[in-house]
Design goal:
Elements lengths: L21 H9 L4 E6 L2 E6 L3 E3 L2 E2 H6 L6 E7 L2 E7 L13 E4 L1 H5 L4 H19 L10 E4 L4 E4 L5 E2 L4 E9 L3 E7 L12 E4 L6 H13 L3 E12 L4 E10 L11 E8 H8 L14 H10 L4
Parallel strand pairs: 1-6, 11-15
Antiparallel strand pairs: 1-2, 1-4, 2-3, 2-7, 5-6, 8-9, 9-10, 11-12, 11-13, 12-16, 14-15
Helix pairs in contact: 6-7
Bound molecules: zinc ion.
């Protein structure tokens, strides 16, 4: 791969050892050198000057703006603690100067430096998980964050809860000369847009088994060998896309009429034109998505 996937490349040290000490975290929350990334309803604060960057704020700014939303430690960079802070409940607009705004992460990631998009992905997934897990799944009592947001603990039964990452397999199937792409139902994308087949892994399944099941369900195609290619964090809300290529054993494609609008085989020349944005009948996802890179790797004969 010539370019890493969007949302990969978060270089923060997640401070596994330091975050075990609550007093250390408290000191870092007050430390004037620590920085905080505000998220409002999961949109991240960015500053747009000559380039777009995450708009990290200080503990002094949080105090001045009376921001008391929960802070979660993302990690350390050159000794500086980086936190996410959920400002969704703050009554005021916090993006008051003209260069600041809260940006939806898909849109922001297109213009942020790669490492910042990776940090923002972690922040978004973590803030979202905390907001959805305020009560214990075992006994129903309130939970509280610990280790700077790396987990939550139930105050009643003591159960520990950890942020989840949901694995999704995404696959480009080939019969040698053609690749199989699908169009999900309910997408707003154009009628010409086709992508790699994808689905959540079930419990007790290997990656290879999930690929074979999903392709059989969505397209009625039997799959033989499955090869791993690469993976992409996908913080909407917190998936990991596991990208694969696979060999078809059968060629008669029949779309699942609940999930899929269409599944079709496309030849290499058509796919290469679509990757260049020049095919009249086929569009494929942009470089933002792992699907693009899986399709390109197949079309260019890398796999
Ligand atoms: Zn409990």
């Amino acid at each position: 791969m010539t370019r890493p996937h969007t949302f990969s490349g978060n270089r923060l040290d997640r401070a596994e050892r330091e975050r075990r000490d609550p007093a250390w975290i408290e000191r870092r929350e007050r430390d004037p050198s620590s920085v905080f990334l505000p998220l409002r309803r999961l949109d991240v604060l960015v500053r747009e000057t000559t380039a777009t960057r995450l708009d990290w704020r200080t503990s002094r700014w949080l105090a001045e703006m009376r921001v008391d939303g929960p802070r979660y430690l993302l990690g350390l960079s050159h000794g500086v603690a980086h936190f996410a802070v959920d400002v969704s409940d703050h009554p005021d607009d916090l993006d008051q100067d003209r260069e600041q705004r809260f940006a939806e992460l898909r849109e922001a990631a297109a213009v942020l430096p790669a490492t910042e998009a990776g940090i923002a992905a972690h922040a978004r997934a973590n803030v979202d998980w905390h907001a959805r897990h305020r009560f214990c799944g075992a006994c129903g009592h309130p939970t509280a964050p610990q280790r700077g947001g790396q987990s939550r603990r139930c105050g009643h039964c003591g159960a520990e809860h950890f942020p989840r990452t949901d694995p999704v397999v995404i696959v480009v199937v080939s019969d040698g000369d053609r690749c199989l792409l699908g169009q999900s139902r309910g997408r707003l994308a154009s009628q010409r847009m086709f992508s790699a087949l994808a689905g959540f892994m079930d419990q007790g399944e290997t990656i290879e088994e999930a690929v074979r099941r999903e392709v059989a369900e969505e397209a009625g195609i039997q799959v033989g060998e499955v090869r791993y290619h690469s993976s992409q964090p996908w913080p909407f809300p917190s998936s990991l896309m596991i990208g694969c290529h696979a060999d078809a054993l059968t060629v008669d494609a029949r779309p699942d009429d609940v999930e899929m609008q269409a599944v079709r085989w496309f030849d290499r020349a058509t796919v290469l034109r679509a990757l260049a944005g020049q095919d009249p009948d086929l569009r494929v996802p942009g470089e933002f998505a792992i699907a693009h890179h899986l399709i390109r790797a197949w079309a260019e004969g890398e796999v």
